[in-house]
């Protein structure tokens, strides 16, 4: 009988320990899936995104006492790989959110998986899906129309009457061109071309020959990163002397390195973080932008010189804020209930101060930026200078 009672006691203790273990496992760490392009033609953007995520984790790595685990995958600049990565992270690694990726086509591919699996996506590339198709995503880079408005205003001030366009033959190229076509005519500026090229192309000589023949007052591009320098190099080779403009997708040290003298004097819109030290002290983003720089220096051993890494950092801030509120719903990470609560928290974000913007999201709008998220900069001797 004593032996039997001892066995029962040990069994009860084991059951209790098992219950405690299960409870500990249930109070799971939070898991974030991060996809970027560490290789391929978009890697000049993807690598800064990676460094920005390292800075974000160095800045803060827990929510409500729970550690946040980041599981990172390389999509090799391929949208199909990006989609497969997203599915693996969601179905096998059980992440509750995806942050990614470096190009708009890749982010749009991830968005399809996010919608199907009901998993929130914080897009760090400029990707937009209207209505229910984009119900599980938000987008951090400032929308093309907002930034294009600043460029068209500068063109008008400079007396530009005709502008030629050359951009990527993908979703980003389309977004920029559509924004130009909506804002230029109202400013009395005629768009005289719509030339396109692939991100992997090594030459745009043919497209630029057509542009130069039109003799436009200015040229603006819808490109990004290192391949974004190609049109400016070709314009210089053809002796073009007009004004040159770009978009916020060009703010990258590799673009400056490859473009060299051909991109000197370029005007572009960007987020305030790029010129944080040049901002007035009353700018709401100055403090967090400087905090980002300190975290970046700590994580990467150097100061940031691009705009893209700060989008990863802002995505992290938005996630941390939303996760805090989602946990208050009592839903546990790793469950459909938590992913829904997290999505609802993300799309209801209000006045969250980031490095690029003060974010306000709505369930029906992918973008969370307003006029506070843009400044105009000019490239002077390899440095971006704030334009009043």
Q: Which secondary structure elements does this structure contain, and how are they paired or packed?
A:
Blueprint: H1 2-26, E1 30-36, H2 43-59, E2 62-63, E3 66-74, H3 79-91, E4 97-100, H4 104-117, E5 121-123, E6 137-139, H5 144-157, E7 162-168, H6 171-183, E8 190-197, H7 205-214, E9 218-222, H8 230-237, E10 243-245, H9 253-259, E11 267-270, H10 286-300, H11 308-327, H12 336-346, E12 352-353, E13 358-359, E14 375-380, E15 383-387
Parallel strand pairs: 1-3, 1-4, 4-5, 5-6, 7-8, 7-9, 9-10
Antiparallel strand pairs: 2-3, 11-14, 12-13, 14-15
Helix pairs in contact: 2-10, 2-11, 3-4, 5-6, 11-12
Which labels suit this protein?
single chain, 12 helices, four-stranded parallel β-sheet, 388 residues, alpha/beta, disordered N terminus, six-stranded mixed β-sheet
Briefly say what this structure is.
43% of the residues lie in helices and 18% in strands. It is an alpha/beta fold and 388 residues long.
Description:
This protein has 388 residues and is an alpha/beta fold. The chain is built from twelve helices and 15 strands. It has helices at residues 2-26, 43-59, 79-91, 104-117, 144-157, 171-183, 205-214, 230-237, 253-259, 286-300, 308-327, 336-346, and strands at 30-36, 62-63, 66-74, 97-100, 121-123, 137-139, 162-168, 190-197, 218-222, 243-245, 267-270, 352-353, 358-359, 375-380, 383-387. A six-stranded mixed sheet has the order 2-3-1-4-5-6, sandwiched between helices. A four-stranded parallel sheet has the order 8-7-9-10. It has a three-stranded antiparallel sheet with strand order 11-14-15. A hairpin with a 2-residue loop joins β2 and β3 (66-74). α2 crosses α10 (286-300), α2 packs across α11 and α3 packs parallel to α4 (104-117). The chain starts with a helix and ends with a strand.
């Amino acid at each position: 009988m004593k032996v039997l009672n001892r066995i029962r006691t040990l069994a009860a203790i084991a059951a209790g320990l098992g219950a405690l273990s299960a409870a500990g496992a249930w109070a799971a760490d939070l898991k974030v899936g991060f996809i970027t392009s560490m290789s391929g033609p978009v890697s000049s953007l993807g690598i800064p995104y990676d460094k920005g995520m390292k800075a974000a984790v160095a800045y803060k790595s827990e929510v409500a006492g729970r550690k946040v685990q980041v599981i990172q995958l390389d999509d090799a600049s391929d949208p199909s790989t990006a989609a497969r990565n997203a599915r693996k992270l969601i179905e096998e690694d059980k992440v509750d959110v995806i942050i990614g990726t470096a190009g708009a086509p890749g982010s749009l591919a991830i968005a399809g998986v996010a919608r199907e699996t009901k998993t929130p996506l914080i897009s760090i590339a400029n990707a937009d899906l209207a209505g229910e198709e984009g119900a599980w995503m938000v987008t951090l880079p400032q929308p093309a129309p907002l930034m294009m408005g600043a460029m068209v205003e500068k063109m008008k001030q400079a007396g530009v009457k005709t502008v030629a366009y050359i951009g990527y033959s993908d979703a980003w190229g389309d977004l920029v061109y559509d924004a130009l076509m909506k804002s230029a005519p109202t400013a009395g500026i005629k768009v005289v071309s719509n030339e396109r090229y692939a991100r992997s192309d090594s030459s745009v000589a043919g497209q630029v020959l057509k542009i130069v023949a039109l003799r436009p007052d200015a040229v603006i591009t819808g490109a990004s990163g290192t391949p974004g320098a190609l049109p400016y190099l070709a314009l210089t080779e053809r002796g073009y002397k007009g004004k040159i403009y770009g978009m916020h997708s060009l703010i990258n040290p590799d673009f400056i390195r490859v473009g060299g003298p051909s991109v000197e004097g370029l005007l572009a819109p960007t987020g305030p973080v790029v010129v944080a030290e040049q901002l007035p002290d009353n700018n709401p983003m100055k403090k967090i932008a400087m905090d980002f720089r300190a975290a970046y220096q700590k994580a990467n051993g150097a100061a940031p010189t691009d705009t893209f890494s700060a989008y990863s950092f802002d995505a992290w801030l938005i996630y941390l804020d939303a996760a805090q509120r989602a946990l208050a719903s009592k839903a546990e990470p790793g469950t459909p209930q938590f992913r829904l609560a997290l999505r609802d928290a993300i799309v209801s974000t209000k006045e969250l101060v980031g490095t690029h913007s003060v974010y306000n999201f709505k369930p029906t709008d992918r973008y969370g930026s307003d006029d506070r998220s843009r400044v105009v900069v000019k490239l002077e001797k390899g440095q971006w200078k704030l334009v009043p």
